[in-house]
Design brief:
The chain is mainly α and about 350 residues long. The protein has three domains: about 90 residues, no CATH class; about 30 residues, no CATH class; about 190 residues, no CATH class. Helices cover about 45% and strands about 5% of the residues. The protein contains 14 helices and five strands. The strands form two sheets. The protein has a three-stranded antiparallel sheet, with no helix packed on it. Strands 4-5 form a two-stranded parallel sheet. Helix 12 packs across helix 14. It is elongated, with a radius of gyration of 28 Å.
């Protein structure tokens, strides 16, 4: 029986005190208050080695994963919390007050100007607070030194670094090796609904990491129903669909980001075929490419190349058969290197294109 992970309390904010956060973890049996206070000190010591002086949401994804990995190794209790939320909550709180303190310190910096006396025999340092320096009869002897700050300016722009999820290799059908971090949300989704026994079904269908779960959440309810129906008669599709809708909202996994950079990118070639991967260098039919981008499914472009949909003439032939589900399913099933999940995603796109042709 998989123990359900502790979700982040909804009322927990960046202004919650350290004692309050520690008390919540102590009441939940995650760690003692004294242990959490030691954990907080470790975060402040370790974070500068990995992260920029900015909020969690602006951090580089890979650097945050390395930082999380080290902290989890020191405090294994974090593994009982969904997405290691105590680490994120305390870090954001600490960095907020750190930045505020630095800004206040800068506002109190006084202009220090050095100038010589009229005889030029010695240097005097005079502070002028809130007023300009007095005028001298020999202004050419006055020299102002530039103000320098010992602390760098904090990063304010988000760092674009999408997560790379390994997928089944299109060249050799080799399955990827996944880490616990890459499958954490998928496992939590199944465990929270008492559906962990469906993990083999998800894996065999081609949904085996958090990136696939996010792709599934990016679809409409109708499209998800079509995909889940392919799981077989032994799966209660309605219950699974309802749990998926609730989880997508509660875990903050809505549609894939509408920005130019997607939130996750599948690597469809293993390390042995990455260098010779012609799949990524070939173009696909222009209409299909436009439609994939509009639906935020542009990662399916290499899959379209596998099926030979590389020009408009081939796309037209494919669309003529797309209305027939049996023909389309047989056409897509001819390539074992593509998982059933990606076959269904491409089939959804082709059917929608066929309806608008």
């Amino acid at each position: 029986m998989v123990k359900e992970l502790l979700s982040r309390p909804p009322k927990l904010t960046i202004n919650t005190t350290v004692i309050k956060i520690g008390q919540i973890l102590q009441d939940a049996g995650v760690m003692e208050l004294k242990t959490f206070q030691e954990f907080a000190k470790d975060v402040k010591k370790t974070a500068p080695n990995y992260l920029y002086q900015t909020a969690f949401s602006n951090q580089d994804v890979r650097q945050w994963q390395e930082f999380s990995k080290e902290m989890v190794a020191r405090y294994p209790q974090l593994e009982t919390c969904y997405d290691y939320w105590p680490l994120q909550v305390y870090y954001d709180r600490w960095i907020k007050y750190r930045i505020i303190h630095r800004r206040r310190s800068r506002s109190n910096v006084q202009d220090i100007r050095q100038f010589s006396n009229t005889k030029g025999l010695e240097l005097k340092t005079v502070q002028y607070v809130g007023r300009p320096p007095p005028k001298h009869s020999r202004p050419h002897l006055l020299e102002a030194s530039p103000i320098e700050y010992s602390t760098p300016t904090e990063v304010t722009e988000p760092l674009k670094s999408p997560i790379l999820y390994p997928d089944k290799c299109l060249a050799c059908c080799r399955h990827p090796k996944l880490t616990a971090v890459q499958t954490m949300k998928l496992n939590h989704f199944l465990a929270s609904g008492g559906l962990f026994d469906l993990l083999p079904v998800f894996n065999s269908f081609g949904i085996f990491h958090d990136g696939h779960l996010r792709q599934l959440c990016s679809l409409t309810t109708t499209e998800r129903t079509v995909i889940l129906a392919e799981f077989g008669s032994n799966v209660d599709v309605q219950t699974l669909l309802q749990h998926l809708d609730q989880y997508a909202i509660g875990a903050e996994m809505p549609l894939i980001s509408s920005s130019s950079s997607p939130s996750n990118i599948p690597c469809m070639l293993c390390e042995r075929h990455t260098e010779s991967g012609d799949y990524f260098r070939r173009t696909i039919a222009e209409r299909l490419h436009f439609h994939l981008n509009r639906k935020r499914l542009d990662f399916l472009a290499p899959v379209a190349v596998i099926y030979g949909i590389i020009d408009d003439s081939q796309l037209e032939r494919t669309l003529r058969e797309a209305g027939n589900s049996a023909s389309t399913r047989k056409f897509l099933a001819d390539h074992a290197s593509v998982t059933p999940f990606y076959q269904q995603l491409l089939q959804i796109v082709l059917r929608e294109l066929a309806r608008h042709s």
